[in-house]
Amino acid sequence: MSSEQPDRRGFGHEIRWTLIVVVVAVLGAVALWPRGEDPSSGTGPRPGAAERSRPGVDTLRQRADLAGCVPPSGTGTSTAARDSPLSGVTGTCLGDGSRTDLAETLAGRTTLVNVWATWCPPCREELPALQEYSEQPNSVRVVGLQVQSRQEAGLELLDGLNVRLPVLHAKRERVAEALPAPRPLPASYLVTPEGRVERLPPEVFESPEQIRRAVDDELEAR
After folding, report:
1. Are 172 and 148 in contact (CB under 8 A)?
2. pTM, full prediction
3. Helix ranges, 88-192 (H)
4. I need a labelling partner for 29 at 20 to 30 A (CA). Which of 11, 58, 125, 186 fits?
């Protein structure tokens, strides 16, 4: 009997150390587990409180307070608008959420159309210049055309830049059929009441004065 006692004590000692090692390993695994993921669901990061509380598109639309996209009063849908290469290009007016035809939006007035996206840094620099130009006397109407980015992101950006222009949100693939929009954005076009479309240089406008020169030069060349 006495000869077996040391072996039992050694066996019990070994079990205790094994349990300690297992506990330490489990605690280490828990400590290293990414805090943003749910280990049981396998669905990746859990949405944080900020993401869950992000405002919806209606709230963002109210905050942005953009101009409407409807044609000027009394213009209606002209034959020129129906025959325009922009006819059939529809999008969502960010100002009120309505579905709008771009050709009808531009009917009746010479308009500068600016194609942009939220992921485009030069677009962020150009939009305030377009807003400032649109507020000057004798300026042509300016309409934004947001592509390849979410409505919510566009509304947040415009609100942050204090840009209140009328803006349509449309699919770039459809826009590209009517406007030769290059891959690097932004791109600006002058559209006449007759539906004629001309690309405006340069690639990026840096000031309202630069925009005025480009518009005036194009109008004088016609």
Report:
1. yes
2. 0.72
3. 102-105, 121-134, 151-161, 172-178
4. 11
